[in-house]
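Tutorial, part two.
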Amino acid sequence: MGKENDSTHHLTSYYMRWNFRQNKIDRNRDGEPTYKNPLYTKSSWQGYVIARFGTFGWLTVLMVLLIAYAIFYSPIFAITDIQVDGTSRTTAQSIGERFITWQMAQRKWLVFRQSNLLLFSSSWLEDNLHTQYSLADVTIMKTLPHTLRVTITEKSPALVWVTNDSYYYIDENGGISSHIDNPDVAGDLPQIFDETNASVQATSSFLSTEKINFIRDLQTQLNSLNSLTIQSYSMPDRLSWHLNVKTEAGYEIYFDTTVSLDSQIIKLREVLDTKAKTDPPKEYIDLTIGDRVYLK
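Running the prediction step on this input gives:
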């Protein structure tokens, strides 16, 4: 018998596992040493991020942060030039101080101050101005790098309200549109003096439209009476229904803004054509008490 050579077959076992990070199957031999990067372990997520993101990625993030800082936090786009056009100097100053400067100190998205021209909310300012003033239109323009320009278009004035030596335009809807620096520019608009000299706050509903229409129609009717020359109009306050008209002759005429104007003008014409001719009033003609007329 020949010598029988026994060959020993060594079975090497393998194990396989799915490598989720590299998206492949790892095949390792039993007993085979494994090598690990100390920065890339299960317990070190920072190392994983570093390995996956790479140097270029971190440089990109740094560049984005620098650009964001330059745009939103540096003075490159800070608002330093505020222009308000289309209204009186006093109103323009009020808009600049009460609204624009205040809004610049507020934050947008709870992080960025609106003193930055790019972050300043035009719609926010426009809504606030429409709430406080009676305006036809508001146009807001931003001119890089520092200029904010607000152009105001006021509603057409219907009359002038005078209180404590200050003059204000009242528009057709009854709102205070602006303060008047020079009352001479009011022209032929009726001027209503507040007898109590109460302070005025900008509002869109200062006088009712009924009173405004009454006053405007009254001015037209009185101008057609050749026997009268009107000096001024006055009211006890803006909520009163009394309207007093002072004549050049020195006496006043009392009107009721809640009663038909035509009926009161008819009574006034009759008095002027009869009793007032023979015995002119020294203090007033009162048209507010029913169908009667009282002279004094």
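Residues 1-12 have pLDDT under 50 and may be disordered. In part three we will examine how such features are distributed along the chain.
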